[in-house]
Amino acid sequence: MIVLAIDTAGTGCYAALYDSEQDLILGAAGADIGRGHAERLMDFVDAALDAAGIALQAIDRIAVTIGPGSFTGIRVGVAAARGLALALGVPAAGVSTLAALAADQGAGAPLLVAMDAKRDEVYWQSFAADGAELSPPSLASLEEAHRIAAGHDGAIAGSAAGLLRDGAEGTDSVSIATVARLGARLDPAEHLPKPLYLRGPDAKPQAGFAIRRA
Fold it and tell me: Looking at residue 2, what DSSP letter applies?
C-alpha cells in the first residue's frame, strides 16, 4: 500500500510517500516554515511525489496529522487530505500528534506525552510500555499537569516535558515517517481525518459590530 503522509500540525510542513509492504519511505519533502502552510503544502506534496518517482494516482491512502497543534495548520492539512482522498477515491486516516510523538519515542516503558499549549495549559496523553493508549487526548492546566506528571512513573516526551520534570527535554516535532507508518496501520473508519481541537481558537468574534440586515 502506498501512503501519502501529510503533517502541518506544527510549524513544519511535510509530505512523504510510504510503501507499507516494504516499510520504506519512497520520497519526502518539507521544511520548518513557521507559517504559510496553505501556500507551501501542495508544492511539498509534488516534490515528495517527484522524489518517489510515482504518480498521484498510485496512492492508496492519505494519512494526516490532526492535532493537537496549530489551529490553522491543522485545518490546512486536514482539508488537503480530505480533498485528495475524495479526488483519488481512497481512504484518509487521521493521526494524533500525541500518538505520533509517542511512537517516535518507541515502546519499552510507560510514557507521558505533554505538549505546551501555552496560557499555562498542557495537551497530554499517557501510553503503556507497549504503546497502547492509557488515556484519551486531554487538555489540563499546568497545575493539574504537574500532578499528573508526579504520579507518572515513566518518561515524559513533548515540549512541556521541561515544565513538568526537572532536566527533561522534548519537542513537538514529529517524524513524517512515523505519521506515514501509523496512518498505514490505522483503520480509516475509526480514525477519521477530523481536527482534534482540545481548545477553541484564540480568535474571538467581536461583539457589537454586527451588521444590520436590510
Answer: E
- Do 141 and 176 lie in one domain? The reply is no
Taking only the tens place, the pLDDT of each residue in 142-168 is 999 999 999 998 999 999 999 999 988
CA distance between the termini of the chain: 55
**22 and 67 fall within a common domain:** yes
Whether residues 142 and 181 share a domain: the answer is no
| CATH number for the domain harbouring residue 116 | 3.30.420.200
Q: Evaluate whether 40 touches 54 at the Cβ level (below 8 Å).
A: no
Q: Which residues pair with 19 in a beta bridge?
A: 2, 24
> Does 44 fall in a domain?
yes
Mapped onto helix, strand or coil, the DSSP state of residue 44 is helix
Helix axes 71-88, 37-52, angle to 10 degrees: 50
Widest pairwise Cα distance in the chain: 65
Q: What is the pTM of this model?
A: 0.90
Cell of 73: 495548520
Positions of E strands within the chain: 2-7, 12-19, 24-32, 61-67, 92-96, 111-116, 121-127, 138-141, 155-157
CA gap 156, 162 in Å, rounded: 9
Q: Is residue 149 part of a domain?
A: yes
> For 186-210, what is each residue's pLDDT tens digit?
999 999 999 999 986 654 544 444 4
Q: Is residue 56 part of a domain?
A: yes
With contact defined as beta carbons under 8 Å apart, do 25 and 177 qualify? Answer: yes
Domain count, the chain: 2
Q: Quick check: 134 and 140 in contact, CB under 8 A?
A: no
